Amino acid sequence: MYVLTGSQQWSVLKSVSESLAGRAVFLDLEGFGLSEIAEGGCDEHWLKRYLDAPDAFVASPPERLPSPRPVYEQLWRGFLPEADSLEADWIGEFYRAYLRTYIERDVRLISDVSDWQQFGRFVQLVAALTAQEVNYSQLGREISVTPQTAQRWLATLRATFQWFEVPAYHGNTIKRISGKSKGYIADTGLACSLQMISTPQTLSGHPMTGALFESAVIAEVRKLSATLATPPNLYHWRSHGGGEVDLLLERDGRIYPIEVKLNSHPSRKDARGITALRDTYPKQNIAPGLVIAPTGQFIRLSKTEYALPWDSQ
Predict the structure, then answer these.
(1) Is residue 88 part of a domain?
(2) In which domain, by residue range, is 176 found?
(3) Contacts of 218 (CB under 8 A, 6+ apart)
(4) From the CB of residue 112, how many other CB atoms can be counted at a distance below 10 Å?
(5) Parallel, antiparallel, or unpaired for β 244-251 and 299-300?
(6) What does residue 164 show for φ and ψ, rounded to 5 degrees?
(7) In the structure, what pLDDT confidence band is assigned to residue 177 with cuts at 50, 70 and 90?
(8) Who is most buried in 151, 190, 198, 204, counting CB within 10 A?
């Protein structure tokens, strides 16, 4: 027998006396993936093929999805189901209502927040800092709260699926917890609303556009990873010398480096971070690297790095 229910209510989950250990499966349903928006895709998405056989993947790259929207419009609209189907004129109203409902209902059920107006400013601030390393002192200083309060409020955002973090990678299991995580707003449409970005055209030349694109790509990789029987570990990497890779996937003792660039014509220099990673860990088993960009085709950038369209199947 199967019992189908709606989405969980925080108050109900708290009051359940049984642990349901071994008798329940929890599914975290995030926003739509690009293949769901395009109503396309294939049996094996590009991430599965890349992780299973990276050399075969770059030898036979995937096709692009029949994407219904330009990249700026998709970032501005976001990936929530309701936002996907609404007319553009209603997107702003939708996210304002979404944020108000979130703060007035979901957060009140799980968190003790004394100043709701200040918490709203905090949400707006973290949206502006998406795709950056998390600094609790900076977050607290910006809105005049303690770092401990900022840490607690950010934990609330994570618990309610509005925020996620990618830990740092050091090549040493013991040291991985010492680096700063990078934080991401879960949906770029909400971030655009919080930053008062009124139209997709406004994103052209906007200082946040690169961070929003990175947030969307990292979120897409997380969504695809969740469909795998054995999902990879996700990290970011930054060296003291300035080398940086936006995302490292680790599975079966191998590293899969991914760089994100908002560049329709990526070149070899866009893969410099991956080159620095290889130089830093010459003995590490590192797969061919990918630069994910809004480009129209799969491009070989160097002997070991390739550019992949962000809307690949």
Answers:
(1) yes
(2) 34-309
(3) 131, 166, 184, 246, 247, 260
(4) 8
(5) unpaired
(6) -140, 160
(7) very low
(8) 190
Q: How far apart are CA 1 and CA 4, in angstroms?
A: 10
Q: Which residues partner with 238 through β-bridges? A: 244
CA distances 13 to 18, 19, 111, 149, 176, Å, are 10, 10, 14, 25, 32
Strand partners, 236: 168
Residue 289 inside a domain? The answer is yes
Query: Is 107 within the bounds of a domain?
Result: yes
Number of domains in the chain: 1
Would residue 171 count as lying in a domain?
yes
Q: What's the CA gap between 80 and 304, in Å, rounded?
A: 35
Place of tokens 């975290």: 28
Q: What is the dihedral of CA 35, 66, 183, 88, to 10 degrees?
A: -100
* H-helix or E-strand spanning residue 34: helix 34-38
The answer, as to whether pTM is greater than 0.85, is yes
47-78: pLDDT as tens digits:
999 999 999 999 999 999 998 899 999 999 99
Tell me how far apart the alpha carbons of residues 142 and 118 are, in angstroms, rounded to a whole number.
11
